[in-house]
Write a structure and sequence with these properties.
The protein has 8 helices and 20 strands. It is of the alpha+beta class. The protein has a domain of about 220 residues: 4-Layer Sandwich (Phosphatase 2c, domain 1). The strands form 5 sheets. Strands 2-3-4-19-18-17-11-12 form an 8-stranded mixed sheet. A hairpin with a 3-residue loop joins strand 2 and strand 3. Helix 1 packs across helix 2. The longest helix has 22 residues. It is globular and about 60 Å long. Its EC number is 3.1.3.16.
Length: about 350
């Protein structure tokens, strides 16, 4: 089975592998069964909220970016539970599919809801913790991308002229900053004139949250919890008639083609600074063999930080980014991984957790 033996923890902190300065560290190119991988870690703040993973087997590759908010519990939970659910459902149904992915997301959300209910008496504030969730999978020549929230997957592919490399967005941003998403949310709540409001410089659902889909954020999905007196001790009451955000992922399935060159999976920390085209251009213009620090300098020194300063005062947004190169003419896949909390490995996992 293609998803068998995914997860065998190998290491829990990238800081043990590479050189770091407290804000970023890296691991140079290393071999694995399908090619090479490289890792760098970038962190902005102190809270441990973002997680990510790359898992490979002889016949499949899986990528996850989990951008947490409100605390680390949801993103850590997704990291530990989503891929095992994918494995279980794929085994039961004879392979990966959009339906398998939907079931895995639903099972992860349901398990987190049970965690919130079990923890309610002691920690009611866990109901306000959530995570965006972006996954990608390559198996049997097919590409699967599923997303909740505003992390994004972008494909770099050879254009029609056979020379230029163009960017193709593979995921949908579930953020009410996007007019289409605002209209979608408003249409679902015709009796609530304040379902989306402009406050603190951005559009927010109920004046609270920008993303319309996530794992967790249970207080915005279960009206009985948001109105509970225990929860009100930790936050303002949120009057709800029905859930205002969901855990239903957008899913894309497409066949990989010979002109598909690489995939970029990244949290919103990247896309707030770079367009899809700019990110693709950076990958195209820099050889794979360059060290991870080169990519960090290109991304961060040019777009995030001032005067080559890595201080936390300048790094306002954490960044999680995975670049996955595909090859149709060679047996190997090559990975260049740049990010904040990344797993990598061959039928196993390397993991890291950094402070956001």
């Amino acid at each position: 089975m293609m998803v068998r033996s995914w997860i065998r923890p190998l290491e829990w902190c990238f800081g043990r592998f590479g050189v770091g300065d407290g804000l970023l560290w890296d691991l140079d190119l290393k071999p694995h069964a399908m090619g090479e991988f490289s890792i760098a870690v970038v962190q902005a703040n102190n809270a441990l909220e973002d997680q990510g993973q790359v898992l490979t087997s002889p016949s499949a590759t899986f990528v996850g970016i989990y951008d947490g908010h409100g605390g680390p519990e949801a993103s850590r939970f997704v990291r530990s539970r989503l891929f095992p659910h994918l494995q279980r459902f794929a085994s039961e149904q004879g392979g990966l599919s959009a339906e398998v992915i939907k079931k895995a997301f639903a099972a992860t959300e349901e398990e987190f809801l049970h965690l919130v209910k079990r923890s309610w008496a002691a920690r009611p504030q866990i109901a306000s913790v959530g995570s965006c969730c972006l996954i990608g999978a390559i198996a049997d020549g097919m590409l699967y991308v599923a997303n909740l929230g505003d992390s994004r997957a972008v494909l770099g592919r050879r254009g029609a002229d056979g020379r230029a490399v163009v960017a193709e967005r593979l995921s949908k941003d579930h953020n009410v900053a996007v007019e289409e998403v605002r209209k979608e949310v408003v249409a679902l709540h015709p009796d609530d004139s304040h379902i989306v409001v402009y406050t603190r410089g951005v559009w927010r659902i109920k004046g609270i949250i920008q993303v319309s889909r996530s794992i967790g954020d249970i207080y915005l999905k279960k009206p009985e919890l948001s109105s509970d007196p225990l929860f009100r001790q930790f936050g303002s009451p949120v009057p709800l008639k029905r859930p205002v955000i969901t855990a239903e992922p957008s899913i894309l399935v497409r066949k990989l083609k010979p002109n598909d060159l690489f995939l970029i999976f990244a949290s919103d920390g990247l896309w707030e600074q770079l367009s899809d085209e700019a990110a693709v251009e950076i990958v195209v213009n820099n050889p794979r063999a360059k060290t991870p620090e080169f990519f960090i300098c290109k991304l961060l020194r040019c777009y995030f930080l001032e005067q080559r300063s890595y201080s936390r005062d300048h790094a306002q947004e954490s960044l999680s980014l995975i670049i996955l190169h595909t090859s149709f003419h060679q047996k190997a896949n090559t990975f260049c991984i740049i990010g904040e909390n990344i797993f990598a490995g061959n039928s196993q996992a390397i993991s890291t957790s950094s402070r956001k």
